[in-house]
Each structure stands twice: as C-alpha cells, then as structure tokens.
Amino acid sequence: MKLxxxxxxxxxxxxxxxxxxxxxxxxxPTLPLSTDSAFNFQLLITLGDAITGGADIGPVxxxxxxxxxxxxxxxxxxxxxxxxxxxxxxxDPENAYDGINVRETWFSASQYFRRADILLHxxxxxxxxxxxxxxxxxxxxxxxxxxxxxxxRVRFPATKGSFTIDAIWYxxxxxxxxxxxTLVIGNGFDAAQEDSYHxxxxxxxxxxxxCITYEGPGQPTIRREQELGFIPDWENVVTPVVDYVLSxxxxxxxxxxxxxxxxxxxGYLAARAVAFESRISAAVLVDGVWDLYAGxxxxxxxxxxxxxxxxxxxxxxQELLSLRAAGKLSSDAAWGVDYxxxxxxxxxxxxxxxxxxxxxxxxxxxxxxxxxxxGSAQFENIFPGQPQQVKDALGDKATLxxxxxxxxYHCQTAAGQEMTRAVFAWLNKTx
Length: 431
Ligand SMILES: *[C@@H]1O[C@H](CO)[C@@H](O)[C@H](O)[C@H]1NC(C)=O
Ligand SMILES: *[C@@H]1O[C@H](CO)[C@@H](O)[C@H](O)[C@H]1NC(C)=O
Ligand SMILES: *[C@@H]1O[C@H](CO)[C@@H](O)[C@H](O)[C@H]1NC(C)=O
Ligand SMILES: *[C@@H]1O[C@H](CO)[C@@H](O)[C@H](O)[C@H]1NC(C)=O
What we know:
de novo design (two linked rop proteins), alpha/beta, hydrolase, 20-hydroxy-prefusarin hydrolase, FrsA_esterase, 8-stranded mixed β-sheet, AB_hydrolase_fold, hydrolase activity
C-alpha cells in the first residue's frame, strides 16, 4: 500500500488524508507555522481567535516553536503549559481588577486547554480528556461571567430522542424588550460551542445581534457527558433550541430575523435542520457541505477504499487501525481516525464510514425555503466542489460566496474578520 506521510501544508487537518499530495510550502497562502500540516491548521485556529480575545499571538508562536512535528504529546503539552500559565495570570487577584482583564485571560486559557485536548482522542480512557475539558469549561464560564452582559448557560431536553442540549445565551442588549436579530450557532465535527464565541458571537454582539450557541450529540461536551455520538436527524437538536429562544427569549428576539449558522461539518447539519425547521429566517453555511461520505471517503487511498467498498469490513478496520497503531499515518490522517471514531462513538472505522452515509442533503434539500449563504473556500480540502453542489440544488435561494487566497482555508480559519464581514453584509442585505 502506498501512503504519503506528509500532506500539503495548506490542507486543513480534517480526515483521513492518505491521498498523495506532496508537501510544498510555496503553494500555501500563509507562512506555515509547522511542517506538520495538522499542527499548522491547529495553530491557525488558535491565532485566529486572538482577534476576539481568545489567544495572544506571541505566547502561541512561543508554543509553536517548541512543538515537535508529528508528536501529538508535544503539541498537547505545550498548550497545557501555556494554559496553566495563563490560568495562573487569570487567577491573580490583581488581574481581576476589571472585566477586560478577567475575560481576556480566561478566554485565552480556555482556548489553550481546548488545544491541549484536541489531539488526544486516540485513547478514550485518557484522563486528560475529562480534566482538560473541565478546565476549559471552568475558564470559559469565568470569561463569559465577565462580559458586559454575562453569557448564560442553559440546558434543555430534546423533544425527540433521549438527550439533553447544552446551550449558551448571549444578549446583545440589556434592555428587556428590545427585539433584536438573533443567530443560532452550531459547529460540526470537532469544535466546541466555546469556540463559537470567537468564530461568530463576539462579532455578532458588536453588531447588535443576540446569539445562542448549542451542542448536540457527537459534539465535545455532549459526547463526554452523555456518551452520545453524532445523529443525522439534526433538526431534533435545532428545533428545541428554536423553541427555547422563541419562548424564553420572546421579548428580545426578532422572530423575523432568526438566522441559523453552521460551521464546518455544521454546514451540513444546519442545512439539514433548516429543511425541517420553518421558523428559521435564513441559514449561513460556513461552508457548504453536500455529502459527508463523499468528502471523507475521498481522503482514503483507492486501495484501502476499495476494501471498504467491497464490504470487507474486518479487513478494512484491521488495516486502518494497524496503520494508525504503527504510526504510519500522517498527523492529519491519524487525527481524523482518532477524532472521527470518538465523535461518532464507535471503535470501528467501517462503522464510522457507514454512519457518514446518512449525512447527505439530496433527499431533503427541496424542503429548504429560506435564503442561504453558502460559503466556499479556495483551499477546501475535505469538501471541495460541495458548496457548488449545495448552491446548484438551492438555485436562487442560495448565494455562493467564494473566500479566496489567505481567507481560503477550510472555514476561513485565521481570517475571521473577512469571514464575519461577508456573513453580516449578507445578513444585513437579506433580512
Ligand atoms: C513547489 O511549488 C512551486 C510553485 O507551484 C514550484 O515552483 C516548486 O518547484 C515546487 N517545489 C517542489 C519541491 O515541488
Ligand atoms: C498543568 O497544571 C496541572 C495542575 O493543575 C499539572 O498537573 C500539569 O502537569 C500541568 N501541565 C503542564 C504541561 O505544565
Ligand atoms: C476479507 O479480507 C481478509 C483478509 O485479507 C480475507 O482473508 C478474506 O477472505 C476477505 N473476505 C472477503 C469476503 O473478501
Ligand atoms: C482566487 O485567487 C487566485 C489566486 O490569487 C486568483 O488567481 C483567482 O482569480 C481568484 N479567483 C477568484 C474567483 O477571485
């Protein structure tokens, strides 16, 4: 079997990047922060959050300097040390003299604890998966308590399915009866609702939009606390969130300007939900995803994919897991296997791929009846071409927006200003 150990440095760290792409820094739109493309992407995520107070640039570049390419533990340890250090600064009573100090230090500490966690999902029993998550949650809660209007954690049961949804409500105004436009924000494969604060919430609040972020099955806190992997019928996650907003927050939400945002694989989940949830007024897909299996299975080399497609699941599982155990996968591929199995709550790669087949828009796309922003990224590596498929299926209901050049990574990572400017300009024009 032919395996390429290094993937293209601009290709974001998503799935089983076993495809033959040569590393070539000169093709990258940004200066690579690691020769390891998975690490480069994680470092871009971290730096990208600096614009909303979720990281500091020198300390992140300092951690990056000491990380050994390919060594997941070194990545985790550097961010754990930086998180500890930032937490100690946050906890210093003199630091807490004002809300800005408090939220900057705690938001950054929270983000560094999440980065310390992200590459550790090979071993589900690693106690750090629990302890780092408790740290990121506590740090984040300290930060949102110090916002001018504190964020409010809420939990409510799903109406269909036995799980509980975790959400955070952020009001844009202290007025008890100002009806404001509102974003309902969800992530995809690996990001947490705490990340959503930096991706969308901070820039939305600044523009006078309320926000609610949420997590459903498969997403970091629900996966840990309720031991549930992803579910395809995502309307059963979004509908209870909309119920909550339109009942509990009815006085401050403009029900004619209620937009659903989906980030990354969340671009699929949000589109699926809006096909069933008629109270949403517009959807924002960052970026458009048409078919999860098509995207993920294209990351496999043709020979290993053939084993799966021939139905020899035991051989497929054994081959992929032994490559992983022998350290023969690129960091992108290794992380994709580790994280995908964990998030879909299965130890079997073939079961994972079987599950991904349930996530395709074709069967429900005709039920979408609202305006849709379909983001598309020049350097999209997992779902290339899929935003165009979403646009084609939606026709005039969709606006396809190409993020090009340095904003062209998966989800416009590290170009958050350019991404949110485009999204809010479209929302302003559309609603
Ligand atoms: C990298 O890409 C550049 C521009 O596309 C090309 O000139 C160069 O030869 C490539 N280098 C390698 C090592 O492939
Ligand atoms: C971070 O602090 C914890 C104690 O809170 C300690 O157990 C851990 O070893 C520290 N990690 C690093 C990398 O310094
Ligand atoms: C599946 O793969 C195993 C291991 O290569 C092989 O022994 C077995 O015959 C295959 N089964 C089928 C049905 O192809
Ligand atoms: C995207 O950027 C590339 C490189 O800068 C450029 O060649 C191309 O024309 C751009 N495409 C669009 C649609 O702007």
